[in-house]
Amino acid sequence: MRIRDAMAPRFGKDSVFIDIDSIPLGVDFLEYINSQLSACDALIAIIGPHWIEAGRGPGQGVHLKTDFVRIEVEEALKRKVPVIPAFVAGARMPRPNELPKALRPIVSRNATAIDSGVNFRNDVNRLIRALDEIVPANKVQEKRTLVFVSLGGTCRDPMAKAITEKLFEEHKPSHHVVIRAAGLGGTTKTQASHAARLAVKEMYGEDLLANHKPQLLTERLAKEADLILIMDRSLLKRSKTALDGWPNAYQDKTYVLKEFFGLKGDVSDPWPDGKNEATLSRYRDCANELRQILTQNFDRLIKALGV
User: Fold this and answer.
1) Which pTM was predicted?
2) Cβ of 124: how many Cβ atoms within 10 Å?
3) pLDDT band at 177; cut points 50, 70, 90
4) Domain for residue 137, yes or no?
């Protein structure tokens, strides 16, 4: 399942249990479910449009006492295991009168929604952050943080972030990898540049930067980072930043992106933004340059992050 695969790097593959897929053949279903719930820190109830009746008609699905979904959720509620309803495919929270009495407490649980499209990663990351507050620290996989930095935080760094996230979707890292995009000089913009969004959308067929919010490279983010890759060398000479000691205080983890991979020069800055073809062509070239660099040197990036 896509949600499980996205969560496994953070909590460990063996720690993310998914009912039917994780139950060995030939074992007693009820005994196995109970044994897993006894060691469970949280239960995520994935609720789709047909969750109540399982597509089988009135009185079926969770209305049957033998329904495995009902058994799991009911037992978790009895054991006071945190139950998080997660809605997919546009599903909504059931009304109390639509559920058997034993499952009605789920209606009052704080829920989340997970989009299958462009917002999938953001939605899963929100769920992971919520679980971080529940799951004991010794059960959480160590994370790695990669930060891409440009001047304004609206074009090169969010494009690099989107491209790298796509590469990690295929790689399935051993650790939870957090990828950030940040600006060193600050910006009045509240979203990624128009042409950057179009260039990435053309590349992947998804508006991956639709929800990008530019942020400053702060002291907290710089300290959290395991690796900081800046788009051009001029950023190392910039004195007016949101964090003290730049760049000397972070020189052990900060590199010019192309130089880090043994290349010369900077990643070309496509700014200014615009909606004409000439502008889009510049951003398209920049996105293609970033994808070529990051794809060809992905093994080096994996090694540097230790994932």
Assistant:
1) 0.62
2) 20
3) confident
4) no
